[in-house]
Write a structure and sequence with these properties.
Layout (H helix, E strand, L loop, with lengths): L9 H5 L13 H12 L10 E6 L2 H8 L13 E8 L3 H20 L3 E6 L3 H11 L5 E10 L18 H4 L19
Antiparallel strand pairs: 1-2, 2-4, 3-4
The structure holds flavin mononucleotide.
The site of flavin mononucleotide has 14 residues, from strand 3.
């Protein structure tokens, strides 16, 4: 019997934030590949307003874990990539988020779990800057924690999981219309 066709969108739908990791290190080659993916992220006017600091030292990641309200999980990562961006406003925030999501999807494709951690205040971002020697024109808003997900542990509390139904977040043709119009269906 033929096996079912692979679902090309499964990885996109199933990507979740990892917060508990095994102690296994992430190979350097894989980290370089993640940087290569990050490098090719599109940005407004191709400004590429970022600098990425890869941190594999456990003590440094443990220090980063103390620099935010929800950063504690960085203590257990095998590596992190601190993303520092130049400038502010919606477009830079968009560029930053786009790069991070792309790195997280790339990590997933390599079998590596990931989670974003935000350094929540100017004071904590200054601590990050001093710890890693990041110059003043770059703002280290957050880090991507990386490692092999410890699947024996829960990754999030229930209120941080799940999603709204599609009817609540999308409309067809006009706001509030939930039914999809009759339209050609995919063959096969
Ligand atoms: C802008 C942004 C900031 C986030 N900051 C943190 C954070 O500091 N710590 C954390 O554990 N998760 C953080 N998250 C992850 C979210 O909590 C997570 O994506 C959400 O709860 C959905 O979880 P799931 O993708 O595992 O289902 C952040 C996500 C986004 C988009």
């Amino acid at each position: 019997m033929a096996s079912p066709a692979p679902d090309p969108l499964a990885a996109l739908r199933n990507l979740r934030q990892s917060r508990r990791f095994l102690p296994t290190p992430v190979p350097q080659d894989d980290l370089v590949q993640l940087l290569e993916v990050a490098r090719w992220t599109g940005s407004a006017k191709n400004t590429q307003p970022w600098h990425l600091v890869v941190v594999t030292d456990r003590e440094t990641n443990a220090a980063l874990a103390g620099y935010g309200d929800f950063t504690a999980f960085l203590e257990g990562v095998a590596a992190s990539i601190v993303v520092a961006v130049e400038g502010e406003g919606r477009s830079v925030a968009y560029d930053d988020g786009r790069l991070q999501e792309r790195v997280m999807l790339a990590a997933d494709a390599l079998g590596i779990g990931s989670g974003t951690a935000w350094f929540s205040s100017p004071e904590t971002r200054q601590q990050v800057r001093e710890l890693l020697g990041i110059p003043a024109h770059l703002e280290p808003w957050s880090a991507i924690g990386l490692g092999y997900t410890d699947t024996s542990q829960a990754q999030a509390s229930p209120q941080l999981s799940g999603r709204k139904p599609i009817e609540e977040i999308a409309s067809w043709g006009r706001y509030g219309t939930s039914a999809a119009p009759d339209a050609p269906r995919r063959a096969g």
